[in-house]
C-alpha cells in the first residue's frame, strides 16, 4: 500500500502540480509550472511559491523561485537560488548556486560554490571553486585553489593552495596580475593557471 502522507496547501494557484514524492510535504501557496512541487522522497517545501524540492531529503523552507535538486540539501529562503550538490546549503539571498558536495552560501547575490565543501559568506558575484575554499564576502572575489581563502574586497583572487587574500582591490596570491576594472587575471602560477 502507498504510504504517502502528502500535505498540500489549500490554494496551489492556477497550475496543478505533478506527483509529490513519497512521504513529502508541500505547503507552498502557488506555482507557475507543474514540476514546482516537493517531488523527492521525504522532501519538504514548507512555504513560499514557485519552488521545487526534487531529490531525496531536499528541503526548501520558503522564498520564491528556489530549486533544490540536491540529495539531503537545503535552501532556507530567498529567491531564485539553486542547490544541486549533495549536502548543499543556501541560507538565503538571491540567484546563488551550490553545485558541489557540501558547499554552502550563507547569503548575498549571484554567488557560486562549485568546490567540494567550499563556502561563501555573502557579498555579490563571488566564487569558491577550490575544494574546501572560502570567499567570505566582497564582490567579484574568487577563491580558486584547494584550501584557499579570499576574505573580501573587490576583484581579489586566491589561486594557490592554502593561500589567503585579506581584502583590498585586485589583490592575489599567485603573482598574477588582476585588472582592477574588469577582474581579468593574466600571467601564470605554479599552482593555478585557470581563470585567465
List keywords for this structure.
single chain; about 200 residues; mainly beta; 8-stranded parallel beta sheet; about 0% helix
Shape: elongated
Mean pLDDT: 87
Share of β-strand residues: 15-25%
Q: From the alpha-carbon coordinates, what is the Rg to the nearest angstrom?
A: 19 Å
Number of helices: 0
Helix % is under 10%
Number of strands: 20
What distance lies between the first and last C-alpha atoms, to the nearest angstrom?
57 Å
Largest sheet: number of strands, sense, barrel closure: 10 strands, parallel
Model regions low in confidence, pLDDT < 50 over at least 5 residues = 189-196
Strand order of the largest sheet: 1-2-4-6-8-10-12-14-16-18
* SSE pattern: EEEEEEEEEEEEEEEEEEEE
Helix and strand arrangement:
Layout: E1 25-26, E2 44-45, E3 52-53, E4 59-60, E5 67-68, E6 74-75, E7 82-83, E8 89-90, E9 97-98, E10 104-105, E11 112-113, E12 119-120, E13 127-128, E14 134-135, E15 142-143, E16 149-150, E17 157-158, E18 164-165, E19 177-178, E20 185-186
Parallel strand pairs: 1-2, 2-4, 3-5, 4-6, 5-7, 6-8, 7-9, 8-10, 9-11, 10-12, 11-13, 12-14, 13-15, 14-16, 15-17, 16-18
Antiparallel strand pairs: 19-20
Question: If you had to describe this structure to a student in words, what would you say it looks like?
Answer:
The structure is a single chain. The chain has 196 residues and is mainly β. It has strands at residues 25-26, 44-45, 52-53, 59-60, 67-68, 74-75, 82-83, 89-90, 97-98, 104-105, 112-113, 119-120, 127-128, 134-135, 142-143, 149-150, 157-158, 164-165, 177-178, 185-186. It has a ten-stranded parallel sheet, with no helix packed on it. A hairpin with a 6-residue loop joins strand 19 (177-178) and strand 20 (185-186). It is elongated, with a radius of gyration of 19 Å.
Amino acid at each position: 500500500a502507498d504510504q504517502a502522507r502528502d500535505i498540500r496547501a489549500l490554494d496551489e494557484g492556477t497550475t496543478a502540480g505533478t506527483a509529490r514524492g513519497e512521504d513529502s510535504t508541500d505547503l507552498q501557496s502557488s506555482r507557475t509550472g507543474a514540476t514546482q512541487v516537493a517531488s523527492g522522497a521525504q522532501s519538504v517545501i514548507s512555504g513560499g511559491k514557485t519552488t521545487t524540492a526534487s531529490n531525496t531529503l531536499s528541503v526548501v523552507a520558503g522564498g520564491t523561485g528556489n530549486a533544490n535538486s540536491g540529495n539531503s540539501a537545503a535552501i532556507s529562503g530567498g529567491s531564485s537560488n539553486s542547490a544541486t550538490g549533495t549536502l548543499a546549503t543556501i541560507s538565503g539571498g538571491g540567484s546563488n548556486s551550490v553545485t558541489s558536495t557540501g558547499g554552502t552560501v550563507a547569503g548575498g547575490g549571484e554567488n557560486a560554490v562549485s568546490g567540494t565543501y567550499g563556502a561563501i559568506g555573502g557579498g555579490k558575484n563571488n566564487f569558491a571553486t577550490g575544494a574546501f575554499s572560502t570567499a567570505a564576502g566582497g564582490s567579484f572575489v574568487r577563491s580558486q585553489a584547494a584550501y584557499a581563502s579570499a576574505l573580501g574586497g573587490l576583484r581579489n583572487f586566491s589561486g594557490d593552495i592554502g593561500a589567503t587574500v585579506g581584502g583590498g582591490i585586485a589583490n592575489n596570491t599567485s603573482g598574477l596580475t588582476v585588472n582592477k576594472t574588469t577582474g581579468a587575471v593574466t600571467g601564470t602560477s605554479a599552482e593555478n593557471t585557470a581563470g585567465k
